User: What shape does this take?
Amino acid sequence: MLQQPHTKYRAFAPIGLKDRTWPDAIITRAPIWLSTDLRDGNQALVEPMDMARKMQMFELLVRIGFKEIEVGFPAASQIEFDFLRRLIDEDRIPDDVTIQVMTPAREELIARTIESLRGAPKAIVHVYNAVAPVWREVVFGMSVSEVMALIERSVSQVRRLTDAQPGTQWTLQYSPETFSLAELEVSAQACETAIAAWGEGKPIILNLPTTVENATPNIFADQIEWVSRRFGKRGNVVISVHPHNDRGTGTASAELAIMAGADRVEGCLFGNGERTGNLDIVNVALNLYTQGVSPGLDFSHIDDIRATVEHCNQLPVHPRHPYAGDLVYTSFSGSHQDAIKKAFAARKDGDLWSVPYLPIDPKDVGRSYEAVIRVNSQSGKGGISYLLESEYGLELPRRLQIEFSQVVQRVMDVEGKELDAANLWDIFRREYHMDGAQGLRHRAQSVEGEGDQALTVLRGELTWGGQPVTIEGRGNGPIDAFSRAVAEAIGQPIRVMDYHQHAIGAGADARSVAYVEMRMGDSRTVFGVGIDADTTAAALKAIVSGMQRAGGADAQQAQSSVAEMSA
Assistant: This one.
């Protein structure tokens, strides 16, 4: 790196807002939240979501409680257009949710965007263009006056087209896209131009993005307070921010922006987005929660949410991710474990939360405090996962490692002795009902339909509560079909949230081991494990294993005697 970076880079100039008020502000209420997972987040994926994953993400966002959702860029591709039409035509948008769509300031794309919204009850049309010097001068070769003319033309077109559809409640969102790098007076002129073209008094959102984070968060807060003073007192204007994370300070930028007067925050679940990502809404919302402010979003089942987002985005959430990572409620240090256990023991019902190393009660997000056992394999004692893999070929998923380590800890607390690999294997087999699930015999299944419409059909019998129960199910593959069949038979929903499978051994002696993370009815999330020479049978055994662990006494009778599964 350069010994003298100042010869190539320069610091961002401060705003000079001498009478700033935001440093003493306290956030006392949640902002309006806008999820852009289906637009900004989706465009940043190596493999953008297909229709099914888009719908799953939309339904998740609704369940969490988002009232404004940016559902796509309908002028960009046919799948984006078709997804929006499906939401509208199939009446999938709740009455209290407003959808938002994005379009650049280009005539043909604006027309296509408004066409895509025909029949929507409420809609936000998000129009953007770049206003910062390097974009307008180098990228687009435009003067300030030419930029303003573009804004006036584009917003006026949106107004004409939306006025022709009075059945929809329209709001304009205007973004001076490169706000964080632009001169404040130019950004203000752009906003004034958009307001005038849209019509004084009509509802408008001024969305101010850190298109690229280029300064410390306090400078962004000064920019937001400056704009808020100029526009924030107009009753029809909402001040919105759209932070990115190029400097790793997206969360700080959002929080300081709220303190500086922002009414609304845009971002993605777990910070997905271009480059280093958009603002992580989960992080900001739960930060508010830990300060005694209700975020208005429900993250009480954070593991389910994470599993769905990982599936839809095809991207993992980091194990150290704030509030949601696999390891954030796990202590490896003995001194940390001791401090946490003592604080738990001292707590009384109704006490304010004050536990060392845990800024939030894990139970509030559906988690628990997991004191993971760590034994150094270099010392000859061997870690639990290390021993099970080296001796028995099991490659336990991270969350299963955490779950099983607690089982082992309970045994060690009672027996007070070190456990070897054979001891661990015996505990593992008992805990996951490996012997009880061996009665499952899988012979065949049929397929109905073709292509994307093809469904797997499974039929058979299951012993539940001591009684044989006939099961029949259809689904997208054997796991889905079996889960649906069992759920209908026992009257409790079965939800498979994660699935892993690998081979043990090789050649004629090879077997498959399946790990299923699942929930039955209102039970806690549990793992089930199945081993069989047949990969499908291993997966079905894993589901039954999880049922037995989640279902209590009834499940103990489920010795998994599915006599036949055939067409």
About this structure: The chain has a mean pLDDT of 88.
